[in-house]
Amino acid sequence: MANAGDIVAVLSSDGRFIDVGSACLRVLGTPAEALLGTPVLEHVHPDDREEAVRRLARCGHGASVEDGGPFLCRVRHAAGGWRHMETTAFNRPDDPKVRGIVIHARDVTDRVETEQRLRASEALYQTLARSAPVGIFQTDRDGGIVFANPRFAAIAGLSPDALSGHAWRASLHPDDRKRLEADWAQAVAAGLPVLLNLRFCATDGTVTFALCQGSPLTDADGRVQGCVGTLTDMTEYVRTADALLMAEARTNAIVDAAADAIVTMDGEGIVHSFNPAAEAMFGIPAADMLWSRIDRLIPDMVGLLQDGGLAVYQPGGEAHGAGAVREAVAVRGGDGDRFPIEVSVSAVETGGRRVFTGIIRDITARKRSESDLIAAKEAAESADRAKSTFLQVMSHELRTPLNAVIGFAQVIEMRLLGTGEVDRYIDYAGSIRQSGEHLLAIIDDILDITTIEAGGLRLNETPVEPSALVGEALNLVAIQSGKRGVPIRIDLEDGLPTLFGDALRLRQVLVNLLSNAVKFSNPGGTAVVRARCGSDGGVELSVTDTGIGIAAEDLPTVMTPFAQVDQSMARRYEGMGLGLSISKRLVEAHGGTLRIDSAPGQGTTVTVALPPSRGMDDA
What's its top-level EC category (predicted)? Predict the structure, then answer.
């Protein structure tokens, strides 16, 4: 027994050690001599003593009796603790070399502890598998289920008893079965992991989306023997993803169809999205603006975002919805043209990042309409003032000749000068005639401007010789020219074409211009009427005087009906202020233009330019 690897001992019939092998020291840390004479039960774990007593009792009856097979018990170690011993006992009372019970004990502590750890690990695995939120499975090489936890059965919509083998595939969506078989076979052949998206159909028609992930199990030679993996229910994820995609598609459709420009950007003004309306508004493709700064198009935008000018975000505060609407100036991407816009911005914060959405509207048309309304209002007010002034002027213009008519008529009617003053009466009759003609001219001008503004002007077009037109106009203002002492000089270019137009209206224009030249020239001054070919092939008629002239800021006034630079009742120059306005409209009716070049104290030149189409060759 001295050289035995296991503990070999001999017990007396009452269970005390008679002889102990030397292995006792190595296995239990106790010298053999320390055990001699001690009861064996003192060294056995209390929980195992009952079985030890029973075994010893069996060996104590009769000769050469075995204890019935190996007995596993725990024996105290000298250092404390217990060692697991696999023990067999043989009763040899008749053997003269033994005369007792032979005990053979083998230390199996490592094996027992390993088996305990394996059982604990298996129990833990089973517990984890039962409580895991994902399905856990193990298959053979062909994909037949060897083990699956309850969660796998729940995801597949089957009872745990229906999972074994290939029965679980019956719950797969028909469109996924062939794909599963093909991908599984390919992964097993290559020894690669399996990653599949599957659908399971329950008996009530419910579809469950699942993600199957598996890893190959190989033997010692590297051959794939099966697979172990997980089955994750992805139904809520798929539904959420579909809902997000639908919401994104709906949002994109709204943004793309919006009439206003919609731009998203971060706090530094970097553009993240740029809808089609923004492309059209700014004249730049979205691809050229993404990840560029918005101040390239809206210089003031970053400042509005950072200083809270749009009231949508304050540093350290919460993000807000739609902020204030502000006006700003934008730059068109292609041509650099600047135009007014209206901006409304909302802000959200996610993951510590701020994202701004700006709705931008081009308000050019609105601004133009506002300007037009203001201009129309001012024009209406100006017209109202002009008409009020006109009534005052007209009353003065009409009263003066009427007073003369009535006064001279009363003198003649009452023969206040006596019957012998025939010549004087004749002079008074001439004054009455002149006053009547003046009244008629005023009335004619009022009727002309009223007809023109009402759109009732009709031209009676016939061939017109420019030289004849100038001569007729001169004859009509000759008396006025003589009385004022302002001679009129004629300057006609040779080869002027015959015009096609309304001779009466063209003569009226020249008479108005010549009459003004005489009226506003100082006695002794000279007026010039010219006719020449224009640079564009048309005909230009101009009248130049050496009179008082007109300041540049007063030129719009002299072209306005019923308006004169001097509106006072004590004006130096009489008239209704309709001559130039009527002349301008008559010239425009012929497709021409009327231009005034003047300066105070340097006289005035009024030029009528008739287009080439008024020449008889082009008519």
Answer: transferase
The Cα–Cα gap between 260 and 276 comes to 9
Whether the pLDDT of residue 408 is over 80: the answer is no
Chain mean position to CA 453: 49
CA dist 534 and 532 (Å) reads: 6
- pLDDT tens for 291-314 read 988 888 888 887 766 655 454 544
Report the percent of the chain where pLDDT is more than 90: 21
- Judge whether 442 and 398 are in contact, CB under 8 Å: yes
Q: Where are the beta strands (DSSP E) in 234-275?
A: 261-266, 271-274
Checking DSSP bridges between strand 261-266 and strand 224-233, what pairing results, if any? unpaired
* Residue bearing tokens 């991908």: 183
Evaluate if residue 62 carries a pLDDT over 80: no
CB of 237 closer than 8 Å to CB of 245:
no
Q: In what order do the strands lie in the sheet with 325-331?
A: 271-274, 261-266, 353-362, 338-350, 325-331
In order of 266, 302, 348, 349, 355, the CA distances from 352 in angstroms are 12, 19, 10, 6, 10
Bridge pairing between strands 100-107 and 207-218: unpaired
CA dist list (Å): 279 to 276, 284, 343, 363: 5, 5, 16, 16
Alpha-carbon distance of 324 to 614, in angstroms, equals 59
Q: What pLDDT, on the 0 to 100 scale, is given for residue 276?
A: 93
Is residue 103 a contact partner of residue 8, using CB atoms and an 8 Å limit? yes
Length of the chain: 619
- Answering whether pTM is above 0.70, one says no
Task: Determine the Cα–Cα distance for residues 231 and 333; give it in Å rounded to an integer.
Answer: 54
Residue 345's SS3 state is strand
Q: CA 60, CA 48: separation in Å to the nearest integer? A: 19
Nearest-angstrom CA–CA distance, 516 and 400: 20
The average pLDDT across 371-384 equals 84
Q: Give the whole-angstrom CA distance, residue 241 versus residue 210.
A: 14
List CB contacts of 443: < 8 A, sequence separation 6 or more: none
- How far is Cα 44 from Cα 83, in angstroms, rounded to an integer? 10
Query: What are the C-alpha distances in Å from 211 to residues 10, 25, 156, 534?
Result: 65, 59, 11, 88
For 112, other C-beta atoms within 10 Å of its C-beta total 16
Of 133, 154, 155, 136, which Cα lies nearest the Cα of 145? 136
Using CA atoms, how far apart are residues 596 and 602, in angstroms rounded to an integer?
Answer: 13
